[in-house]
Amino acid sequence: MCGIIGYVGKRQALPIVLEGLTRMEYRGYDSGGVAIVGAETIQCIKAKGKVALLKEKCRLETIEGAVGIGHTRWATHGEPSERNAHPHKDCSGDIFVAHNGIIENYQALKEKLVRKGHKFVSETDTEIIAHTIEEYAKTEKDLSTAIRLALKDFHGAFGIVVLSKKHPGTLIAARFGSPLILGIGKDENIIASDATAILPLTNRVIYLNDGDMVVLSENGFEITDFKNGNGRQERKTTTIEWKSGSAELGGFPHFMLKEIFEQPQALRDTMRGRLLPDEGTVKFGGLKPFEERLRSLDSITLVGMGTAGFTCLAGEYAIEELAGIPARREVASEFAFRRSAPCKQGCLIAVSQSGETADTLNAIREAKRRGMLTLGIVNVTGSSIAREVDAGIYNHVGPETAVASTKASVSQVLLQEMFALYLARMRGLSKSEGQTIIKEMQKLPAYAEKILTSAGSIKRLAKKYKASRSFFCLGRKYNFSSALEGALKLKECSYVHVEGGNIAELKHGPISLIDKNFPSIVIAPKDSMYEKNKSSIQEIKARKGPVIAITTEGNKELEKIADTVLYIPKTLEMLTPILAFIPMQLFAYYLAVERGNDVDKPRNLAKSVTVE
Ligand code: AGP
User: Fold this and answer.
1) Which of 573, 582, 478, 565 has its CA nearest to residue 521?
2) Closest ligand 1 atom to 404 CA
3) Is the CB of 271 under 6 A from ligand 1?
């Protein structure tokens, strides 16, 4: 959601800024803009729509300068338009600002500034940042002092980058609630909201903290604390291991398909170095200091949003079944707004690919207020969630670029089940039971590879159902998670209406929708729920509803009942969602392609939802 980039160095800033914006396109946006400091003036170009259009507009101008900022905007205040696109400037045209996040008190600030004579041209909250800085700059000669004073006026979340004609050769950025990463180069520095935009220049980075302000020039940078006025700050430099090229298509037509096919490797990477087959358990380096607390947990709450939240439905079953600890999944946004009693022996597990989801971050903060231990299952290293939780487990699946989560989701389920096994072995699950589970986990990458060989037949299936306007996606127990996730994948990529749900609920109302034009996808592996799922499939068929069933290899029985049967290899019941997700991802992908949708960047969506 929104992308920020700023460059200062010896090279031409424009191509670097545009390349950075291209690399952040996956986050979701509706307009973009750049501002480059030239010899005499700042040139600002904006475009509604794709970065490609912005590039085209830039191509028609001569834009030179070694300092520049850029932004991709996902509309919150004011429609997507050129007028509302960032960067925004002050009245004099001296100060330009790009901003991620929301300034909650912008209306009150705007009224004050209007009374002082400031003229606004957009409907955004961002524009008040430029004018507030301008106001302070009337009395403060030093730009960083004016910015520091302005920042104190803002309530809400922000990551900003500012440039000024009067201070050429300098960029100032600040973070409070929205991520910013400083990239350290040789005779050049770069700041961005996303590491993928920095990687072509350098992999040496500093993750800024909330309250940090950084002044960058080609010669160096200085970080200070604008929130508490603590002066100069030292921050750790980190080397990012992701390769710049891992965010490229590598021959696939879309990132979503590439990432679906990366899943066998993603599963291997998730387990790498963590399974202890001889001991029948799992090790998580980051959890070591908390072992005693983990031993005495009396409850676990799993939170996430969207896909990440649905994976928690598999996690809660596994934790209860293996470790015997009461576990429940809650939508992160709702947990954050409950004010329940302190829960000092409880633990909150926050699951998030990006590590920047605002609702999930709020849940962590609420859990801390309750005295809970907070753990994170996060893919993006150095992200806000990774840094706010007491301890974390990284997915290690590399950058996920398509808006629709695929490889991160299977890794999220697997990690929660590995965590369940880790807890269970602390609480009396036998070594041999642990070894059986580990053996099955080790087979998952090969099983995923096998499922991917059915991509061709799933593509044909998508052609067959191209015209369907509504689907059910149904399952129960572990595969209730798969049902909700399958439904979400179809909705977000193919724009069809899909109701995901527990198949046991069908008879209690939703079955009235079933007719020959209302297909159902039913996840029915040969497990403890199989007979019940089979009966439900028969009830759907009795009402002439088409059924696509997902079941276990070797189970031919459903071919006599369902219209189409897709197979997943036989594994433990708790691991079935990891496999069941894959055919549904392929179906959603191919249906989206059939319908001509923008698969990697579905309309109205952002990869990382950093606002509540
Ligand atoms: C997944 O396909 C979605 N795009 C979305 O539901 C996503 O999982 C959700 O926004 C949570 O994101 P996170 O994992 O980065 O926290």
Assistant:
1) 565
2) 2
3) no
